[in-house]
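User: Please write out a complete single-protein record containing the residue sequence and its fold in token form, without commentary.

AI:
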Amino acid sequence: MKRLLTLLCTTLLIQTFGCYAEMLIGSLTQEIETTTSITRKRLRFAADEKDYINGGITFNYPTGCFSVPPTVRITIETKIGYSSTELMSPCITSNSATHTTVRVNKGTTASISEASTDDVCVHIFAVGA
């Protein structure tokens, strides 16, 4: 039976840098353990955050960072305060080895629309194979 162990930089996911930081690029080590061996594989990652702009935002990866579209995790941080009647939801509209585009929707029980400029800060964590 194989066990997949992945070393994650949990402090990176918890740390808040504000929406003005540069894209962070690095690598993780993935270990695939079987009953007879341990295989290590280097995985590239990129992390960034940007203030949302109506129309969507694009995170551009440095040339050569990923050879195939990465697995992407998107989170949002509201800048307009908590609302018990409005839900904010990020959506990846495009993902490739060179960029990821995100749109943020907001909705109520009656309607869904796009978030306004500066409503949220969008955080991205992308891991390539």
